[in-house]
Amino acid sequence: MALRMWASSTANALKLSSSVSKSHLSPAFSISRCFSSVLEGLKYANSHEWVKHEGSVATIGITDHAQGHLGEVVFVELPEPNSSVTKEKNFGAVESVKATSEILSPISGEVIEINTKLTESPGLINSSPYEEGWMIKVKPSSPAELEALMGPKEYTKFCEDEDAAH
């Protein structure tokens, strides 16, 4: 009880919204998504996917901002290896306790690997969106598509502007 009272008073002092989870009776905080992690060395799409380009392989996942909006991820649908993905087209879905959301590919190319760990542990998207929670690895077909994506500073500003509009 003391922890809940402290959390509530701290949230009020910091002007954060707080609520009590009915299932666990522990504090849950909603902090503006502009505090989400944005990593250097990655490129970002305005649909909240990230790309890490290394050599001839691009690793793709959803951002910390996106997973924060989704809530607890309970199921992930990914494409088959050797299939194609197209920029700004659906390549899979993420189901959370709140909703099911399509995942759009930030680039076009051939899927060379999928993260099979997500089948058994979809929550990796929540706990480690940029590392263990990656979704697919793609052989990009158009380098220009990578260059058109946002860098970390641009993406942070995009998220701040998007959150301010809501």
From TrEMBL:
Its cofactor is (R)-lipoate. Keywords: Lipoyl, Mitochondrion, Transit peptide. GO terms for biological process: glycine decarboxylation via glycine cleavage system; protein lipoylation. Its main location: mitochondrion. GO terms for cellular component: glycine cleavage complex; mitochondrion. The keyword Kinase does not apply. Residues 57-139 form the Lipoyl-binding domain. Pfam families: GCV_H. Belongs to the GcvH family. The glycine cleavage system is composed of four proteins: P, T, L and H. This is Glycine cleavage system H protein. It comes from Capsella rubella.
